[in-house]
Amino acid sequence: MADIHANLIGGEWTTSTNASRNINPSDLSDVVGDYAQADAAQTEAAIDAAAAAFPGWAAASPQRRGDILDAAGSAILARKDELGRLLSREEGKTLAEGVGEATRAGQIFKYFAGEALRLSGERLDSTRPGVDVEITREPLGVVGLITPWNFPIAIPAWKIAPALAYGNSVVMKPADAVPGSSWALAEILVQAGLPAGVFNLVMGRGSVVGEAIVASPKVTAISFTGSVSTGRRIGARAFETGKKFQLEMGGKNPLVVLDDADLGTAVGAALNGAFFSTGQRCTASSRLVVTEGIHDRFVAALAEKMQALKVDHALKPGTDIGPVVSSDQLEQDLRYIAIAREEGGRLVTGGERLSRETEGYYLAPALFADTDNSMRINREEVFGPVASVVRVRDYDEALAVANDTEFGLSAGICTTSLKHATHFKRHAQAGMVMVNLPTAGVDPHAPFGGRKGSSYGAREQGSYAREFYTTVKTAYVFGG
Q: Residues with catalytic annotation?
């Protein structure tokens, strides 16, 4: 393997004896690049570098931190087409989605450049005469970031930018399947003038790199996005070692469609939410909860729209849906499709592996009907272009079915009834609620996160990010 992309440790690009090959899921003959795999010792070196750099960065002025983040954001936006193409090659999103995600990453850095200057405190009068109370926020220290493969530049951005804005140093492990976008971000941060050691990139297996980050006593906090099983293990380990931790995990998000919904709006929301980005979003609408008066028309209209979607190479003009990210994910999707059929679900359309001009992990988006909420297809996260319809009598049953899940990330409703929309916003057991919109699709300045088994800890994004990336200090001052 020539020209290995190295890890960034203490400001130095550091290679290793092992590397992984990053393959384009749209074309298995296309090598995106070879990326170094850090070992435990290199991960410890990155943590040591972050710990050494932390005092200086924490003491840096908000203006300096903001200027560096702003420069990084400008560089990302200037290179959005290049970065979007890289993202689409390594993850399989369509080129439009890849460029859109890169643009969002740049906007996130720009936003937190401003937040570095907006961090505020409070002053209170004490109950004791002559005593002032000052409440301030301070950085945590070394923050470990463990990011997923489905948003390989946006999710790293919305973790890195606030961590740096508030004065923390960072050790980051990207998903092993998509190291390229994170490596490009690391290069941009170096070029933006970030001091050596403040940001460190260690690529490699979770069992090696992730384990070292979680176990290290020098790491003060962990922010993780990924699977439920891994998140729970990280949470347990972090609790044992006294780390602050933030977990964003799975979803089994309902989109409720009521009889009074505009059919075109409902079908558009379901099509986008369930199948775009190949359904590989934690906010995807994998459960379509539809009242019986509109059920048959909705299923027929959605199936017709699905059959018109073009599934092909992510970089081809006109492609609506790219490939699944990997052979393992494709196998999981096909396994759940088989399970749904065995349980009695009716496959309305899709669900078969597709052949295209280039060899890749192509799957026709699948829609099931005649399912009930007890089936595994409606209980477990598939994380692919697979959605199932649950027929219900009325709004009350729809709300009950929507909330009947261990997850609680996002929930949506399509209706023209102000009464039902207002009630759903209040009573849906989810961290985010969408009305006449796809369940997927959030803004970078608004808080992101869920309830129940989907999330643990403070919200991500927007001004709410400071709740995780800072700690509160209360000081009492006697004026005499």
A: 248, 282
